[in-house]
Amino acid sequence: MGALRRNRLLPAVAVAVAAVGVVACEPGGLSTMSVAHTTDEAATAEIQRRDVDVRWLTCTAQYKDDKKAGAVAAVDCRGRTADGRAITVEGRITRAVDGACVRGDLTAVVGRKQLFRVSGLGDCKSATPSPVKPSGSAAPGARPTVTVTVTVTETVGSGGAGK
User: Has this prediction a pTM greater than 0.70?
Assistant: First the structure.
């Protein structure tokens, strides 16, 4: 039975790894999926670093103008804290390293209070940022895309038994 489960799981894992590899190595710039995912991860880490317990955060990214070199990706993130306050992160991304960092103009609001306004999130020192531009942007008739990502933070209690 264990071997049967493993054999069913292996192809699914291979497809997931291949999909991540395609997104990370996409030539000609980062996809909206990469921009949304990287912003989601970096924003969640920064919000939590500022002692706010993030329950979930979801980000979308969309290119504003895919016909210009160095296009700008608009990012819109929404979420909730563990105590139920609304989280919003909005801004424009001009440069990015897939999975490592984003650069541009980002503002985070938790509840009704601005938590930060920054020109970048994440560690770009580990890699050279690439201009954010839609893949295939040189193709005539290319259209902007929208991508949604979701990060859910789950806290597992100690579950210790009473006396």
Answer: no
